[in-house]
Amino acid sequence: MADESRAKDAPLSLEQIAQLLPGTGEIMASVGEAWWRCADDLGEFERQLVAPLLSALDTRDGPTFERLYASATDRANELHHKWAKPYIKWVLPDEPPKDLELGPVEETGRG
Asked: In what helix (H) or strand (E) does residue 12 lie, and over which residues does it extend?
């Protein structure tokens, strides 16, 4: 049974929440430092995995896309371990986000 006599914390305002979060400058500095350190790995990742993945997407080659996507996911997780960030692990969600409509696109005549 919860102790209902305890006072609940007052909700934080948006301004209070913003003060608790890092600013854009801090985030960009962190990203820049990380990018600098692992630039070779990122360049290789883009050349060997992202470029072919995008090509498969452009040609609508589903089987190749699926294979490359799995490889890219595995490699991204390996790189997270290499760069001492094993707590970052990419996994494909079981279901797509509910706010997306995924399916064929109807071509409409525009003119």
From this structure: none
**H or E element, residue 80:** helix 62-82
DSSP 61: -
pTM of the predicted model, to two decimals?
A: 0.61
**How many Å apart are CA 27 and CA 5, to the nearest integer?**
40
Q: How is residue 33 written in tokens?
A: 């430092």
In whole angstroms, give the CA distance from residue 28 to residue 35: 10
Residues making up the chain, counted from first to last:
111
Q: What is the pLDDT of residues 22-73, one digit of tens each?
A: 777 787 887 788 778 888 998 999 999 999 999 999 999 999 999 999 999 9
Selection from 42, 43, 40, 63 nearest residue 53 by Cα: 63
What six digits make up the tokens of 109? Answer: 């005549």
77 within 8 A of 90, measured Cβ to Cβ: yes
